[in-house]
Design a protein that fits this description.
Layout (H helix, E strand, L loop, with lengths): L14 E8 L5 E2 L1 H4 L18 E2 L8 H16 L9 E6 L10 H7 L6 E4 L7 H15 L4 E8 L2 H5 L16 E8 L6 E8 L8 E3 L15 E3 L2 H26 L8 E4 L4 H10 L11 H4 L6 H11 L8 E8 L4 E8 L4
Parallel strand pairs: 4-5, 4-6, 11-12
Antiparallel strand pairs: 1-7, 2-3, 6-7, 8-13, 9-10, 12-13
Helix pairs in contact: 6-7
Amino acid sequence: MDFTDPRLTSPPQVSLVDVASYLPGEPVGTEYFTQFSRSERMAKNVMFRAPKARHHVGRDETVVDMVEQATAPLVERHGTQLLPQIDILLTHTQLPNNPVLGAGGEVARRLNMNPRYVFDVHNGGCAAFVHMMWLARTIMQTTDARTALIVATQNCAGPVFTQTEIRKLAQAPVPGDGCGVGLLVKNSSAPILDIECRTYPEFAGDMDFSTGSDRKYWEPGEGQGCVSFSESKVAKVFARGNRLVPEVAHEVCKRIGVKSQDIDTLVTNQPNRLFLRNWHDALELPAERHPDTFDQCGNLFAAGIPVTLDTENRAGRLRNGSVVLMSAFAHAGDFAGAAAVRWGAA
């Protein structure tokens, strides 16, 4: 199948040549939360049905610690010379350890990297892996940069959702912690076929971060900070998510000339079981072609796509030469992205 358009002068091809991931600690069972849960209507909402297990980052485990663990398999496979030769470092962190700084600079220092381009990318949310693929590809196609490391870290499940008041809430058991990384190279070995990223400003601000009191999160006092939705907003977000993920996925399929039902593997963010079912139904794909790590990891937000890719790749379920489609939406629907690759990761 030919994905090139002879009418266009093609920019340099960029490939996703490897993925790796890290899950902290031992799995945490749902019984941890049930001992604290209180009866509330929101607990019956399908958005908050708990996974069987999730992982929680340790109190003293930093974002950089997680990234170091996630990249270790890349170093094993490609050699110790890999990281010092990376030109582009893009990071997305759900909960920065230092609220003033992103993780990029410290990651580079810890991993003995000296990248020319370092960006901490925040707005991509659960679609950040796709967003960073697009950014890395854009930089490589317009500069002489040849390699990129993209890093998605979800680290708020342990610190935020186990707080004494927050762990009682319906949404507390859903998130898990983890880190996923991708290695991109300017070549045609495992090419990115197309990427679609869309911002929806009309939905920005619909996700709230509140302490449950008048206190701002940086002020001392009572109240525990957490992301929250009203029931009316949950319904809106559910409707948006059902629409946005298939919408951007279909756009990529159209541009590469493949029907959605012919995609070999669909990998999405993993918010809950109902979204997962609705998305593969909308793309006319059987469930077995839409891998699901939700019950093992919970909602990993931005790390969901790379962790799932790594899980499937290590299990040998991603065939070289197959078309893998990634699609996700962020926050309350203010961003969505999809990317298709010709699989060839190590």
